[in-house]
Amino acid sequence: MSHGFELEPALAPGTMRPKNAVVAALATGLNVLNALVLRISMVALLGASGVLTYSVVTRYFLKSATDWQDEVAVFLLVGATFMTTAHVQSLRGHVGIEAFANLLPPFVNRARLFLVDVISTLFCSFFTWKSWTLFYEAWSEGQTTSSSFAPPLWIPYSLMAVGMSVLTLQLFLQTLVRVTGGEVQKEKK
């Protein structure tokens, strides 16, 4: 089966729509932010591929060394990866083990999903805190990479910290939807 040409992204089973007006407004705002970040990340991926292509062409044909392209490409890829995690989570697109989902009674499965959301939120909160710590250290100490290009390390650390912050917010919001009584969305056909 071929995928990738759907107009609307597929919803994971059990994706909930908020009933609470405040939570719904927060979810809408986060969806708008996720859509914007997704488009910017697409441009970053194109930029990374352009930088790496330029590097290969200049090294092969012009026999010219480039010392900056690897770090620029990595920074763009780190940014695109971390900044889009909340969008992927909003679709429940992260890797999940659903082997038991069909075997469990519905109320146990709902409890399992809630527990997974809470544990994921707690883990990502810790990861977010550590990411902001890395950003602060790199910023305050003026840390750079060890190459001759030596870009500042606060750039990828800030992208990682912001991306993890938005992912944590997405997970918290999903947990809040479960707590406030969301309703299961039907997948559009």
Largest sheet: 2 strands, antiparallel
Q: Main sheet: which strands, in order across?
A: 1-2
- Main structural class: mainly alpha
Number of domains: 1
Q: What is the overall number of helices? A: 5
How many distinct beta strands?
A: 2
Shape: elongated
Q: Could you report the average pLDDT, rounded to the nearest whole number? A: 87
Radius of gyration: 20 Å
End-to-end Cα distance, whole Å, is: 16 Å
Describe this structure as you would to a colleague.
The chain is mainly α and 189 residues long. The chain has one domain (17-94, 104-181). Helix content is 65%, strand content 2%. It contains five helices and two strands; from the N terminus they run βαααααβ. The chain has helices at 21-60, 69-83, 85-90, 106-141, 154-179; strands at residues 16-17, 183-184. Strands 1-2 form a two-stranded antiparallel ribbon. The two termini are 16 Å apart.
